[in-house]
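Blinded run. Sample ID left blank on purpose so nobody reads anything into the name before looking at the predicted structure. Input follows.
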Amino acid sequence: MTGISRLPNPYLDNNAVRDLAMLFGREYELRFIYDMLEKKQSVSIIGSRHIGKSSLLQYVGSSALQQRLGYHLQQYIFVLLDLRDYFDKTPDDFFRVAYEQTVKQYQERSSPDSSVQTWQDRFRKVLRDINTSGLHVVLLLDAFDRVAQNEAFDFKFFSSLRSLATQQLVSYVTASIKRLVEICHPGVHDSPFFTIFHVCLLGPFAHEEARQLVVVPAERVACSFSNEEVAWILEQAGRHPFFLQVTSRFLFAEKHQQQRHAPVDLNHVGERLYSELLPCFKDIVERLPPMEQEEVIREARVTSRVTRKMAELSESALFRRYVHEHFGDTDMTVKDIKEALDNLANTAFLETCKLATTYYVMSRYEQASAAATAKVGIIVRDFLKAAFTRMRSSGTRSDSALEWRSYNILYYHYFQSQYNVSNEQIAARLGIRSRRQFYREQEEAIQALLKEVREMEKMTLEGKKI
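Blinded prediction complete.
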């Protein structure tokens, strides 16, 4: 029996990238970081979970990477600290590890001064020694959220870090999910330490970067993906680096198992892949602040190519499936429409009603947010008016025309309410003989308005002009 050759799967890393050859993209972000470090400034890398913050920190100090981008930072000592277990650590723990790792990197160090007692003082002294020798230390602080949220790290600690930076003894490159001042514990919220950083936002890959991550590793081991398979990976994963890595890994394994002869069942791979990523999707969404949860859920319901604030998530077909299965679509009801109509003049109420959560409203609010007068409640009211206008029938409106009946009921009761027309007067004006019939037709009119609201929301999601 002929042995089957086994190809190494080049997409196996689920955590930070461990091979520089697998570090794709991020050229813009790296250039920004290096430009700041050349000026001995500090940088805060901010991005969602699994977006590649740790991978970036892992290789910022690589001389090969620096030279590839045209930078020469031989006088810099890069010290990487992994702070993921710092929920219950102390400042003493931090300075001890920072000192030990810095000394380890600084091979030409002088003998430690035994008279220096605290780890903080030892760390400061070694920084001064390094600075005197013409070198500069860069602390790469992964998962710095843990330190910022730990109440053991007080105002004094952050003042000490800031002092070291302002004396240009050290630069910091931190990685966190949110801006540090947004996630730090209350006791240090006003610390000036958080003002020393230049922000580097880490979002989705550029389209070509995403394609390179998919295509190049497979080509290196002579098991290339077809154009159809590349397109499938990009559709399923979007431009999120981790989603791309996992999707490519699953498809590569399936192709190799099929010995590259039989066609791959993409539906089968997709189901296995979705099961693999499901806990990741759940974790990402649950860790988002409530407003960002609402934003990404709205975006994930959109199938058209629109501008997305959280494209790294909402572009992925797999993530959109997760949102659809766990959050459903915006389910507007007659009750929701009636409540909004009953409060049409109350913009404060309209801001909190169900209509305010629609993509139609939020997309228009985003477009108008530059104007100081932009308010969600006003946009909701305009939404209802626009949907109401779509109910107009052909020809000239008249009270006696049956084809205008639903429009007229809403017109007199809600949209021309300054006339203070009672239900009885509306019924008489429209020739409706009984109260029961009037309320039945009023319900039908609101249902017709709901239909137009849903249609406008659908058209917005599909990127169609209304």
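Unblinding after everyone has recorded impressions. Residues 38 and 355 are 50 Å apart (CA to CA).
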